[in-house]
Specification:
By secondary structure, this protein is an alpha+beta fold. It has one domain. Helix content is 36%, strand content 17%. It contains two helices and three strands, in the order H-E-E-H-E. Strands 2-1-3 form a three-stranded antiparallel sheet, with helices on one face. The termini are far apart. It binds zinc ion (2 copies). The site of one zinc ion (ZN) has 8 residues, from helix 2.
């Protein structure tokens, strides 16, 4: 019981920190090559859920993307495979 209360307190603190420092979220789209990950870094505006399109039944992925990468994803995976929500 005591443990539950502690956890609740912690999550409240985290929420406060997020609203205080209002850092804009950055697009996490990978613009690197096979050797290295290079995040896009533009201001993210969209939460994009991408269904598996390879036919192997992978779980859907969620990516935080800028407008440009969201459009690229839509072209890459097709409108039916992705769900876009404003952040
Ligand atoms: Zn897949
Ligand atoms: Zn981007």
């Amino acid at each position: 019981m005591a443990r539950t209360v502690e956890l609740e307190k912690e999550s409240v603190v985290v929420d406060e920190l997020i609203s205080i420092d209002r850092e804009p979220q950055r697009c996490e789209c990978d613009h690197g090559d096979d050797a290295a990950y290079a995040p896009c870094g533009r201001k993210a505006k969209w939460r994009v859920t991408i269904d598996c399109v390879c036919g192997e039944g992978h779980p859907r992925r969620v990516e935080i993307l800028c407008s440009r990468c969201m459009r690229t994803a839509r072209q890459t995976y097709g409108r039916e495979a992705i769900t876009v929500r404003r952040l």
